[in-house]
TrEMBL record:
Keyword Membrane (UniProt): yes
Position of the signal peptide: 1-22
Native organism: Hymenobacter persicinus
Keywords: Membrane, Signal, Transmembrane, Transmembrane helix
Region Disordered: start-end pairs: 280-411
Protein name: WG repeat-containing protein
Annotated TM spans: 203-222
Keyword NAD among UniProt keywords: no
Pro residues: bias regions: 326-347, 402-411
Biased composition (Low complexity): 284-325
Length: 516
């Protein structure tokens, strides 16, 4: 099993290294994403330049290049048929260009040439300044990766609807002799370029699916191995605890055994001891009457005179003096001397112990001669050793145990998220640990749980990605000035504020940032 897992992991590593070599590096946008940003900035300029800024909201700048192309096919301002289709859709201008940067430079140059070729725009100095500003934006994006922003343009007049004059450079109008390409070559140039780009995706899409399935299988096997190891560890732990419990239960170590008992078990043992002691005491009280009657019968029997004379004098003076101190009734004639009550002197006195034992052992208290519990108590105590009951408060010991409240885990003090969505951050996108693409850090207010602050993360590894994709990662959440040169780091000048509403953190005030 371990050999199979090792081979599978090695194979997965080889495939992943091959796949990642052909993909775009982390934090770098793809060629289609960069084209989308250039075309998006261009179309926004054209819509603003022609007096139709309301059409800017229809652009799909955050998606793929194909989605952006579908958003401008309505062609109300002829931007698709006269600008986008001759340059991008046919793709003849990319022929012979190998690197992505050279293609982007070619695209920006052709777009600016198309816009400057319009006669209506050349007559208006303000509109030409807008074209020059757009040219600077596109050049900065291609050279430094600085995301383009909206260019302030003048509102065109009503008769300037067809402002994109491409008669001078329109390759669609020019014939095959002027362009140097036949009709078949023009039709097949774009499919060859698109086929070269989609070949890698066609090859690596099934490979990525296979890798994901293999990773899922390895994850399941790894979880099963972890569960098996956990069960084995629990079994070994239980065996060790049983061995320790058996060792602690030996008679030679009662203290260790008592420590292993739970409070409930200790209370049960104490109750059982109480019951046994009460039973023994009840038996002792029941059996105390019969020995007393037997002793009285023996005392009432007449003894021979020789026996009475041979009996040595015993230490019964205190016992005899006690009944004599009471008022004696008047003597009455007794017909028979046998019926006379037994004299106190007939009570057997305890035998005197040797002096050595008398010094070592304390003398028991002298009881009256007629005490009914004297003889059974002495016999019971001689057979059963005294039981020392623990000094326990039974009202507290038998009381139900109050469950200890478990402390609630503290709420996370910081969250991490990638980009805002619809003017806020959803709770489903928040992460307690920073990810490789986390751009923002959210800090909830401990005093007001419905409010929080956010800022751009200090991890400079994701700053390049955030700068290049600023249209949908920085623009909705941050306020900043467009940089004039190359930048590589984002510094937060003032934290933004958030408010909790409908399961999401809505942006109340944007964060102030600048680029370095």
């Amino acid at each position: 099993m371990r050999i199979f897992l090792s081979c599978a992991l090695l194979l997965a590593g080889l495939f992943s290294s091959t796949a990642t070599h052909a993909q775009t590096q982390l934090g770098q946008p793809t060629l289609d994403e960069q084209k989308t940003q250039i075309w998006c900035a261009t179309m926004k300029f054209v819509y603003g330049d022609t007096g139709r800024p309301n059409l800017q909201s229809t652009l799909r700048c955050g998606g793929s290049l194909k989605e952006f192309e579908n958003s401008i096919k309505a062609d109300s301002q002829k931007v698709y048929s006269m600008l986008y289709q001759p340059l991008e859709a046919r793709g003849t201008m990319y022929k012979g260009l190998g690197s992505d940067k050279s293609r982007l430079q070619k695209l920006a140059t052709e777009i600016i040439n198309k816009l400057k070729a319009s006669p209506a725009r050349r007559k208006d100095a303000a509109r030409m300044q807008g074209v020059q500003a757009l040219e600077a934006q596109l050049k900065g994006y291609v050279e430094n990766g600085t995301p383009p922003t909206d260019v302030a343009t003048a509102v065109a007049s009503d008769d300037q609807t067809d402002v994109i004059d491409t008669t001078a450079t329109d390759e669609a109008v020019a014939g095959p002799a002027e362009t140097g390409l036949g009709s078949q070559q023009i039709a097949s140039a774009a499919p060859r370029a698109a086929g070269g780009e989609s070949l890698m995706s066609k090859f690596f899409a099934p490979l990525a699916l296979i890798m994901s399935l293999l990773s899922l299988f390895l994850y399941v096997m790894l979880r099963r191995s972890i569960n098996d190891l956990g069960s084995r560890a629990d079994r070994h732990r239980n065996e060790l605890e049983s061995v320790k419990a058996s060792a602690n239960g030996m008679p030679a170590r009662p203290v260790a055994a008592a420590k292993g008992l739970t409070p409930e078990l200790q209370r049960d043992i104490e109750k059982l001891v109480q019951q046994r002691v009460a039973e023994e005491l009840g038996k002792r009280q029941q059996g105390s009457g019969q020995p007393q009657g037997q002793n009285q019968g023996k005392q009432n029997q007449p003894r021979p005179q020789g026996t009475q004379q041979s009996t040595p004098p015993r230490q019964a003076a205190p016992a005899a003096a006690a009944p004599s101190s009471q008022p004696q009734p008047q003597p009455q004639p007794r017909p028979q001397p046998v019926a006379a009550p037994p004299a106190p002197a007939s009570v057997p006195a305890p035998v005197a112990a040797p002096e050595s034992f008398q010094e070592a052992m304390p003398q028991p208290p002298v009881q009256p001669a007629g005490s009914p519990a004297s003889t059974p108590r002495d016999e019971f105590e001689s057979l059963i050793p005294p039981v020392q009951l623990p000094g326990t408060n039974w009202s507290e010991a038998t009381a139900p145990a109050v469950p200890t409240p478990q402390p609630t885990p503290p709420a996370p003090s910081r969250y991490y998220v990638k980009v805002p969505v619809n003017g806020g951050f959803s709770d489903y996108d928040l992460q307690e640990q920073p990810q490789h693409d986390s751009i923002y850090e959210i800090t909830p207010d401990p005093r007001v749980p419905e409010r929080a602050t956010f800022r751009v993360t200090a991890n400079s590894g994701v700053h390049a990605y955030a700068i290049q994709s600023a249209q949908y990662s920085l623009r909705d959440a941050c306020a900043y000035q467009q940089p004039n040169g190359p930048v590589s780091r984002i510094v937060t000048d003032k934290d933004g504020t958030l408010i909790k509403s409908n399961g999401a953190w809505q942006i109340e005030q944007k964060a102030a940032i600048h680029f370095e």
